[in-house]
Give the backbone structure.
Amino acid sequence: MKRSRAGLLCLAACAVCSLGAAAAAFFSGCSAIQSAAGAMASATAGTPAGSVFKGIELSAESFKGFSPSQEHYIGRSVAVEILSKYTVDPDAAIQEYVNLVGQAVLIAPEAGKTFAGYHFVVVEGDELQAVSTPGGFVFLTRGTVNRAKDEDELASVLAHEIAHVTLKHGMKSIKAATRKAAAAQLVKGVGEVGVAAAGSDSKDLVELTSAFGNTISDITGDLLVKGYSRETEVEADKLAVTLMKSSGYARAALASYLKRVGEEHSGGEGGWSSTHPKPVDRIAQLGEVGTGAALGRDIRKRRFAQVVGG
Amino acid sequence: MKISGDDNMRTKWKRWPAAAVLAVLVPILAGAVAWAADLLTVTDRETVMRKEKKAWSPRVGTLKEKDKVTLVKREEPWLLVELQGVQGWINQSSVSDDPNVITSGTDAARGARATMASEAGRGFNPAVETEYRKGKPNLEAAFKYIDSLEKVSYPEDKVVSFLKAGKLIESLEGGAN
């Protein structure tokens, strides 16, 4: 009888678990299973069963990567590295105008939201340069703004940078070794907050800060020195024209901007040319999706001229 | 082992409580898992709930980081969510279905050493940034600029006026492009 009852209970437990897991998978995919494992780990903390669930949770954690708030803190420090190499343009009118154009592009629902919104900064310099950090800090030189012939072309530059943020290209620059070291610390932290809070935090904090520093260094290296791969830039261009369409700007503006800067930089080396693929190739990759007019372009051109000139 | 008719009846009878427990537990657990899957955590510092699936649609509420909202409907990239009886549309990239998602912890301005221990266990955050900044005194001015930049915001009515003046909403609703 005991065996029979044990069997029945075992069957019941299996049925409950299977149905629970099936429901989780049905309603929300694997992340729900991770969530359920997390919830069960909390409920069974300190028990052998708890350590099993904790194992599931920690493995998942190391795979999931960085949350929006962590991306934000990474982005802040990358932004600081960029700012240390440039001077912010003192023209308040142009700062506000570029930010409003950026906010206009962000009405596109395909634009990924960030923890603390997007911030656009015009820096001094005639060279062609625009970069974005994780978390939504976008920098562009005054020369990049001046090369645009109207608001739609300026919007295309901002849309390209918003696309890099949305597609998490900066985060993908983090080298595997750095990611592994950070994940080890982060995973450790998830399980050991209580221990750290008891006072043994300094070693963990130093190691976590070291991983943080390496993360900043990996991203900054790609942004300012190596540049992204050709495929990455093309991917950002394609999302950029989608953002343009979904925010009411002319899709063709990206290709026309690229064409102009391509003619200027043909045969040139260093700076933007060394960190971006040839504009002619980018335009070819866009193809038909990179064409399309939009209502009101002349009106926007006039307000662009009022602020930027030209 | 052979079981007599009486024994068999008794065994069946004794199985009833277990079956009853199962009948009660299964729906509850399945429901709980489904509920957990439909409960989302806000990951933006602040996000606006809108009346319609448009960025310029009127605001019906504001959500803060760590708020737990219930998913009502999914029309990607928009989600209809509910908090305290108020329903509104938000962008799916503003929430996570992971209940253990790492959030920001304390505000950077608080950044006191006293909070560092607990914060250190929760990822890259103000405490880690504070520690990082200590080793980079030459970057302090740039950090201060970023702090001030984050305080600058563009009011919704100003952005909507900008959109309207530039015929962007008209361009979208007119179906051009």
